[in-house]
Amino acid sequence: MYFLRLKRQLYGFAITLMCIFFLMWLVVNQRFFTWIPRNSDGHVVDSIQQIHAVQRRCVCESSLVLENNSSILREINTKLSNVLDRVNTTAKANKVKSDNKTIDIVNDYYPFVDFKFVFPQISPTNVDSRDLFMVVLVNSGATTDYRKRREAIRQTWGNRSNCEQRKASGNEKVKDLKWLLVFVVGKAGPGTNDDELNMAEARQHNDMLIGNITENYLNNIIKFYMGQVWASKFDIKYTMKTDDDVYVRIPRVLEYLVNAKFPRPFYGGWTYAGTLVNRKIGGKWTVSWKYYGEKDWPRFNPGAFFILSSDLLNRLFNYVYIRKPFHTDDAYVGVAMRDFRVRITTISTFRIDPDMNKQIPKLKDCYLLGKTALGHNVDPIASKILFDRYETMLCGNIPKKC
Ligand SMILES: *[C@@H]1O[C@H](CO)[C@@H](O)[C@H](O)[C@H]1NC(C)=O
Ligand SMILES: *[C@@H]1O[C@H](CO)[C@@H](O)[C@H](O)[C@H]1NC(C)=O
Ligand SMILES: *[C@@H]1O[C@H](CO)[C@@H](O)[C@H](O)[C@H]1NC(C)=O
Ligand SMILES: *[C@@H]1O[C@H](CO)[C@@H](O)[C@H](O)[C@H]1NC(C)=O
Ligand SMILES: *[C@@H]1O[C@H](CO)[C@@H](O)[C@H](O)[C@H]1NC(C)=O
Ligand SMILES: *[C@@H]1O[C@H](CO)[C@@H](O)[C@H](O)[C@H]1NC(C)=O
């Protein structure tokens, strides 16, 4: 009898212990409280509908007040980091195996971008924004090479007295469409005099946005937003984001928009289709599943040059509450546009080649006349060659006809 009772008590004790352990396990794993949707292969599902399902709510303000006011900016960034932190904490509770034991590419943000809204510390003064139609935001860098690239752009495609611009001023279609070109730059940081040189350059040319952000590849997205936020202060119709190693015939871009009857919403560029997302630890364009849970990128316009209509800017600013910004800004914009159901436009006269500088000498006159924007790797020498060829073809003794 006594033994039987003891046995029963032991069973009861064991069952109670098991229950306690099970509950503790639930709590530790947070399975009880959070649910992260996964694909059949175990990857975090991250499409916009499912984001809403896990209550990553968009704290969308219909018009996000992005003024150059440090207290307002701090408030916005705190709210933003609260929203994103919550997601991050959830992620850490669900660690799974990965290539690198210290990096969980499925459930962590990798590479980690400490996103915040930044206003430029230096910006052009006395901007005449009346009837401003388009702001061209040229991403550039802080060191010597980039100063050379900016100088080349000021003397070639960004120069208002070049032949193409002069002709445009007599062209009814585009002569009233005012544009402004600014370079978007961060800080080199201590140890060099680059920042002083860039400040001096900004004072001399009055065409630079300098943000208090360290120049590195991860901060690209912060620079991108800084430029768009600054441009959105003006009553413009479009922004065009470009890199500093491209050649853009701005009047032809304007003409394109006129001929297309000023499309809105508009997201246009040279389109990449069917690119796999790189998930390899350490890759330049690697983006973890946590940021973006699909295998392929949607079609997107690479960062060398793309155009956004201004009605999209505010939505893009609010989108950071829905999907944490990752460093490849062009793909991020592409994903946002896909989620907004904005149709992507491919501008057929834009052209990207990985080594455009090597191609340029081989390109025929008529090919060049048919193109509006050419990129990557158009270095200062290649820019000058292109510039001279366009000057000759457009304003030479015998203008070229194709
Ligand atoms: C910044 O915003 C705060 C809060 O709205 C306001 O009290 C302050 O006057 C603003 N500062 C400037 C310089 O505009
Ligand atoms: C988010 O997670 C990453 C990787 O686990 C970590 O490096 C980062 O510090 C976290 N960020 C925040 C704001 O908690
Ligand atoms: C923003 O405010 C800071 C501090 O008041 C100022 O130095 C900077 O020039 C301002 N930037 C712009 C773009 O107005
Ligand atoms: C624009 O081109 C003209 C003529 O070549 C040149 O004198 C001027 O310095 C250029 N502007 C800039 C900002 O470099
Ligand atoms: C720039 O940022 C650094 C680091 O966040 C900060 O210490 C510094 O005060 C900022 N400088 C300006 C001019 O805002
Ligand atoms: C992978 O993890 C090791 C530590 O085990 C770390 O030193 C290394 O930097 C990580 N690799 C990358 C690409 O982050």
UniProtKB/TrEMBL annotation:
- What's the superkingdom here? Eukaryota
- Keyword terms of this UniProt record: Glycosyltransferase, Golgi apparatus, Membrane, Signal-anchor, Transferase, Transmembrane, Transmembrane helix
Output the GO biological process annotations, alphabetical, semicolon-separated: protein O-linked glycosylation
Bilayer topology reads:
Single-pass type II membrane protein
What Pfam families does the database record attribute to this sequence?
A: Galactosyl_T
Which residue windows are transmembrane per the record?
10-28
User: Where is the protein situated, by its record's location annotation?
Assistant: Golgi apparatus membrane
First-tier enzyme category under EC: transferase
Recall the GO molecular function terms of this protein's record: hexosyltransferase activity
Q: What is its EC number?
A: 2.4.1.-
**One GO cellular component term noted in the UniProt record for this chain:** Golgi membrane
| Similarity comment | Belongs to the glycosyltransferase 31 family.
Which PANTHER family does the entry mention?
BETA-1,3-N-ACETYLGLUCOSAMINYLTRANSFERASE, HEXOSYLTRANSFERASE
Name the record gives this protein: Hexosyltransferase
Question: What species is given as this protein's source?
Answer: Paramuricea clavata
Organism ancestry: Eukaryota, Metazoa, Cnidaria, Anthozoa, Octocorallia
